[in-house]
Amino acid sequence: MVYLTITRPDIAYVVHVVSQFVPLYRTTVHWAAVLRILRYLRGTVFQSLLLSSISSLELRAYSDADHGSDPTDRKSVTGFCIFLGDSLISWKSKKQSIVSQSSTEVEYRAMTSTTKEIVWLRWLLADMRISFSHPTPMYCDNQSSIQIAHYSVFHERTKHIEIDCHLTRHHLKHGTIALPFVPSSLQIADFFTKAYSISRFSFLVGKLSMLVAAAS
């Protein structure tokens, strides 16, 4: 299932969760979760990403994090997704390596991970002779993190994420990224940080440009 997440972003978060319990695979509740994922895959076997041939070649990214979501160690989850035009080309759902003390801190660490992915994608596309005249928008729903990136006056309050601050601020200053605010209700990257109700899940899957292909 880990390999399947390369083409199925809709199971990225839940596979990330159950993968943490591989050494405890005999536990009934974990096995039940795996079976539920398999039932979902069986019911959506023809669902796949749409990679449009007429889409634009502009990047846009969404970055989010869920603060202290793991009840066992209180580490947070980073989630991001990046679109090339209307096509989803990169995404991640991963537990952060250390425990963070505030939602601003976890959001900023997620922004840094997203920034590094954007920089790599811009370099990759530049090798394909695709140039960018504008910064890549990275949508974030945390106003404090956006303010930290824009104004160095916040630096003394963020010594514990100093390198992250410098990295994101550097690319913001040099026009690689922009940081527009997006409401949490429209934050697509939130899909990769937590579980949702059926209605919310379906809404976000639609935003990922996942369609049901016709059976051959």
- Which topology of the largest domain does CATH recognise? Nucleotidyltransferase, domain 5
Would you count the extended β strands for me? 7
N- and C-termini, Cα separation: 24 Å
Please give the count of helices.
Answer: 6
Round the Cα radius of gyration to an integer and report it: 18 Å
Give the biggest beta sheet.
Answer: 5 strands, mixed
Structural class: alpha/beta
Helix content, binned percent: 25-40%
Form type: globular
Instruction: Tell me which CATH architecture of the largest domain applies here.
Output: 2-Layer Sandwich
What is the total number of structural domains?
2
Strand content: 15-25%
Please mark out the parts with pLDDT under 50 across 5 or more consecutive residues, or reply none.
none
Along the chain, the helix and strand elements come as HHEEEEHEHHEHE
Cross-sheet strand order for the largest sheet? 4-3-2-5-6
Mean pLDDT: 85
For the record, what CATH class of the largest domain applies? Alpha Beta
* CATH homologous superfamily identity of the largest domain: Ribonuclease H-like superfamily/Ribonuclease H
